[in-house]
Design goal:
The complex is a heterodimer of chains A (about 650) and B (about 100).
Chain A: E1 7-10, H1 16-35, H2 37-61, E2 66-78, E3 81-89, H3 91-114, H4 121-140, H5 144-162, H6 169-202, H7 210-216, H8 222-239, H9 248-251, H10 257-266, H11 271-278, H12 280-283, H13 287-308, H14 314-334, H15 338-365, H16 383-397, H17 403-417, H18 423-448, H19 456-460, H20 467-482, H21 496-505, H22 516-542, H23 556-563, H24 568-614, H25 622-642
Parallel strand pairs in A: 1-2
Antiparallel strand pairs in A: 2-3
Chain B: H1 4-24, H2 28-53, H3 57-87
Helix pairs in contact in B: 1-2, 2-3
Classes of the chains: A mainly alpha (about 650), B mainly alpha (about 100).
Chain lengths: ~650, ~100
């Protein structure tokens, strides 16, 4: 079960991977406005580009079973408890590094074009670089506490960037919502972390270092591990937008589109998946938690997909799709296939970033319009955007030989065949795959095909986006196809991916060879439902002169439920927010002035009342004092003379 | 020679006059004079005891007390003059700002 301790090699280069973006952030923060918009943006891009180059270099150096480590200094030292600021790269971190810096770099470049006209572009790049720094801290940290620092940091950046256009109160509210919902999750995370530390400390092991943890968690009793993993998973549901804490992610689309692509699709929201994969040795010891994770993941995948079916906002469809795909990842985690979860994370980063940036390109061309009912027919106006969008849509739908095909099939296969999997989990995932194909092609048809439904004023200004935006799209589109080829199934050319992550996850998931027939059959079944999904989308939205979006009443109750996101926001509002604000109001308007102020004022009034008796003695007249003095002296005198 | 008690009684009477003066008079200068009375009453006691006990120490103390009293009178008067310039009065009842 426990993987052998990897050989640790010191590599001082690692510190520069996060520090360069931090430097870029600091420079832009203090001198950005003096540099001017363009140089500030280029500086930010260069910082991330440099990180990417170093990450590539480190990736090339990384031996199969080795770990690179770079210790900066001791952060906390308290008795036997010691936490270092120390970075560590193994195969898992290397994958995350490449995703974050690579896709981050592309999105930075894209932002140069997308945010071109924005007043706050310098601030934007400051936040973006800061985000990259924290995200790198999250994946590079060699202990749980450093991971947590990054975890909180990306949450902060997410908040700042969702509310980037804070002049609109709705955006600020969306930012608050994201932050508060994440707080709930983080609370679970902190509790889990503290429990882990104290329980291990009780056995005399004071450490948060992943490698050390891996050696020692076996000594904890299973019930404790169950509680710890559950609490950590609560943190993951917050950050990675799973049921019940997924509500913030769709609202997070209020931020600029590159932010949605970078933070709310490719990187930050996958932090929960990364965390569970990083602590796979812990989760593997808690089968009950894994079962729960699998169920939550499958439920989220399905549930979010049903919502995505009817949304009309181009970015909201993608947001629910992200929630759904994250559900897939947790499904994989839940059945013990951590490597597969990371594989889907990897491919998803490409095609979802591509889709978001493509939608950004569309929104840019339409002057800020996000309603798909007012789009259509953009194919001829924006060929580059269209074709990259098609590729990414195919990839997320799972068309053969695209990235999504490989990773999603692997997840479904693991859900079916793994020791923790079941047919029910597979079935839910399978249905979701069909819905994914449907809603993505629905979107494709509504946005790019048919007649243009934008008003004439907007139509006159339709334009393809500049190269600074389309080139990243093309790179991501290529990634949307080829990134999946690393993890091909047995019946094709076999997976390089599994071998790559094998040393980390060890025997955490057992390989299932010798069931190729079944695997191929399941794959064909999946392809079938994907084809059905695409066909349905074509019939409903793709045919020439097909009806436009039918009104909400056309689809009946289910349609309305989906369109209104099952009224989840309303239910949460009614169940949680309202009581909370009601209590707060009562506290603020009744309790605080009455009781809190009453106590404080009461203490003051009491002191005043007591003193009013005695302060009469202090007349200010010297002669009265002398009289008192005399009386005292006489009393003393009488006392001593009275002594025998 | 008159008995010691006579001296002590005289001294006590003078001291009491001084105390009453300090307590009841409405003029700072008179109060200062009353303080001098009290000091000298004490001096008288010292001298009386020194004489009757045949010791020099009481006389030494008296010289000290006189020196201190002279200094006290100087400073006291200086303060009184300063106060008068400031408040145009010497009545201690008019000087009660230092209270709650």
């Amino acid at each position: 079960m426990v993987a052998p301790t990897p050989t640790i090699v010191t590599l001082d280069l690692l510190r520069w991977i996060p520090l360069i973006p931090l430097l870029g952030c600091a420079l832009n923060l203090f001198f950005g406005s003096r540099l001017g918009k363009k140089p500030a943006g280029l500086l930010a891009c260069a910082a991330v580009g440099a990180s990417f180059a170093i990450a590539l270099y480190v990736f090339a150096l990384l031996p199969a079973t080795g770990v690179f480590r770079d210790t900066l200094y001791t952060w906390i030292e308290s008795g036997p408890f010691r936490v270092e600021i120390s970075f560590q790269v193994d195969a898992l971190t290397a994958v995350m590094l490449l995703v974050i810096t690579g896709i981050g770099f592309l999105i930075h470049i894209y932002s140069l074009g997308y945010m071109d006209q924005d007043e706050g572009i310098v601030r934007f790049f400051v936040y973006l670089n800061l985000f990259i720094f924290f995200m790198l801290l999250l994946v590079l940290g060699d202990n749980l506490l450093l991971l947590f620092v990054g975890w909180e940091g990306v949450g902060l950046c997410s908040y700042l960037l969702i509310g980037f256009w804070y002049h609109d109160p709705n955006n600020a509210i969306a930012g608050n919502k994201a932050f508060i919902v994440n707080r709930i999750g983080d609370f679970g995370f902190v509790l889990g972390l503290l429990l882990l530390v104290t329980e291990l400390g009780r056995q005399g092991i004071w450490t948060l270092d992943f490698i050390e943890l891996q050696k020692h968690v076996g000594s904890l009793d299973p019930a404790t591990i169950g509680v710890i993993t559950l609490l950590l998973f609560v943190g993951a549901t917050g950050k990675s937008a799973q049921i019940p804490l997924f509500v913030w992610l769709p609202d997070a689309m209020a931020g600029p589109t590159p932010v949605s692509a970078l933070i709310h699709a490719a990187t930050m929201v996958t932090a929960g998946v990364y965390m569970t994969a990083r602590l796979h040795f812990l989760f593997a010891l808690a089968p009950a938690t894994l079962t729960l994770i699998a169920m939550v993941g499958a439920a989220t995948a399905f549930f979010a997909a049903t919502i995505a079916l009817t949304q009309t906002d181009i970015k909201r469809v993608l947001a629910y799709s992200t929630v759904s795909q994250l559900g897939y990842m947790f499904l994989a985690v839940g059945v013990g296939a951590f490597g597969v979860a990371i594989f889907h994370l990897f491919t998803h980063a490409f095609f979802k970033a591509c889709l978001f940036l493509g939608s950004g390109s569309v929104i840019h061309a339409l002057g800020g319009e996000q309603d798909m009912r007012k789009m259509g027919g953009l194919k001829s106006h924006m060929p580059a955007t269209y074709w990259t969008y098609v590729i990414a849509t195919l990839a997320i739908a799972g068309a053969p030989f695209t990235a999504g095909f490989f990773s999603k099939d692997l997840i479904l296969w693991q859900a079916y065949s793994s020791a923790h999997g079941s047919q029910a989990l597979w079935f839910v995932g399978w249905l979701t795959a069909g819905m994914t194909a449907f809603y993505m092609f629905r979107q494709l048809y509504m946005v790019f095909h048919g007649n243009c439904r934008a008003d004439s004023h907007v139509q006159a200004h339709l334009h393809e986006s500049p190269a600074v935006m389309t080139v990243p799209l093309m790179v991501l589109a290529l990634g949307s196809i080829f990134s999946g080829w690393l993890g091909a199934p047995e019946y094709l050319w076999g997976s390089r991916w599994e071998g790559w992550l094998e040393p980390i996850f060890g025997g955490a998931h057992e390989p299932h060879h010798g069931a190729l027939d079944l695997e191929i059959k399941l794959m064909l079944l999946t392809l079938a439902i994907i084809a059905v999904g695409i066909a349905l989308a074509y019939v409903k939205y793709g045919r020439p002169r097909a009806g436009l979006e039918p009104g909400a009443e056309a689809g009946g109750t289910l349609y309305r439920l989906s369109l209104h996101k099952y009224y989840i926001d309303e239910i949460y509002d009614w169940l949680l927010v309202r009581p909370f604000t009601t209590i707060s109001d009562w506290l603020a308007q009744v309790f605080d002035p009455g009781v809190i102020d009453g106590i404080v004022n009461g203490v003051g009034a009491g002191a005043r009342g007591m003193s009013s008796i005695w302060r009469g003695l202090q007349t200010g007249n010297v002669q009265h004092y002398i009289a008192g003095f005399l009386l005292g002296t006489l009393a003393l005198l009488a006392y001593y003379l009275g002594q025998p | 020679m008159a008995p010691l008690n006579y001296y002590l009684i005289l001294s006590a009477v003078i001291f009491a006059i001084g105390v009453i003066g300090v307590l009841v008079r409405r003029n700072l200068i008179v109060i200062l004079m009353s303080i001098e009375l009290m000091l000298n009453a004490v001096n008288l006691t010292f001298i009386a005891f020194a004489r009757f006990l045949g010791s020099m120490e009481g006389q030494v103390v008296v010289v000290f007390v006189m020196a201190v009293a002279a200094a006290e009178a100087v400073i006291g008067l200086a303060i009184i003059i300063a106060v008068f310039r400031h408040r145009q009065t010497l009545d201690p009842q008019e000087m009660q700002l230092l209270k709650w």
